[in-house]
Write a structure and sequence with these properties.
mainly alpha, 2 domains, two-stranded antiparallel ribbon, 2 strands, 5% strand
């Protein structure tokens, strides 16, 4: 990683913060910029992410390895969501990333995972993109404020009601 790559990553994160309307702490903004810069020009293996995380946690892998897997979860949730949805829900992968950050003793990143994901996804999104309501509901259940805001525009509120069914309430 060089200073140009870090500058590009920092600008990308700032754009995402503006588009999503989600302020990040200085720590999370810097962490997200560094994490994104590390992945620029590299590759990420989103396949078998759940198994790789479970094996690392079961084996008592070093913090750096677990943090790296958490970073992969973050990047995958932000940029490869459709691919992840083939084998699970967004909530699953968000939880996986949060658990990994927590296991690596990065508490602020664990709690800020959804916000960091929203910032990255917002920066990468084009204005023409319109997501299926089911995708937005899945993101909202994972804690995404941007998804909740998009659903609110459609007069939909995600909540725990619905007689055991995933519930929607029309305003």
């Amino acid at each position: 990683m060089n200073s140009a790559t870090l500058g590009i990553a920092a600008d990308f994160v700032k754009t995402g913060i503006e588009k999503a309307g989600i302020p990040l702490s200085a720590t999370l903004e810097a962490y997200l910029s560094l994490t994104f810069a590390r992945f620029i020009g590299g590759s990420i293996n989103v396949d078998l992410l759940t198994i790789r995380v479970a094996q690392a946690l079961d084996a008592g892998a070093p913090r750096g390895v677990i943090r790296g897997l958490a970073d992969e979860c973050l990047i995958a949730c932000a940029f490869f969501e459709r691919r992840l949805r083939r084998s699970g829900t967004v909530r699953h992968y968000v939880g996986l990333g949060q658990t990994s950050y927590d296991a690596a003793r990065l508490t602020e990143q664990a709690y800020g995972f959804v916000h960091m994901r929203d910032v990255m996804a917002s920066a990468a999104a084009t204005d023409e993109e319109h997501e299926d309501a089911r995708v937005l509901v899945d993101r909202a259940r994972a804690g995404s404020q941007t998804a909740r805001n998009e659903l609110a525009v459609q007069n939909v509120v995600v909540g725990p009601w619905g007689n055991g069914r995933p519930g929607l309430l029309w305003r």
